[in-house]
Amino acid sequence: MKLLLGFLIVTLGWGLIARTFGPPLGQVLYREKLRRRQANGVTVPTQEAEQAWAQQAGTRSLNIALILLALACGAAAGLLNFPLIGFSRSLNGWSWLRILTLMATSWIVTLLVYGLNDL
Description:
Blueprint lengths: L1 H38 L7 H33 L13 H22 L5
Helix pairs in contact: 1-2, 2-3
């Protein structure tokens, strides 16, 4: 029963959390990356190169933000003794990495806190 509940949490809850908190956290990471770039005095030769950097940095910041959220959510689920199971419906490598991070963190924390007896 607990694994079924874990699957439902991943299926319904993770998508909601990722859509709600991913973009704001991604913006914070992007602004920090931009601030560090400006502080180091890095310049880009053309406007096109600047736009390409901004696009790439924005995408990478969002992906890192979602990985951090997956770690936090997986740890929270593990602390609540809910090891998560699930899968990604996407072929995107980042999507699979997020789901694997979410599940692995929940299982590791569950096993560390509760052991095998309470599964």
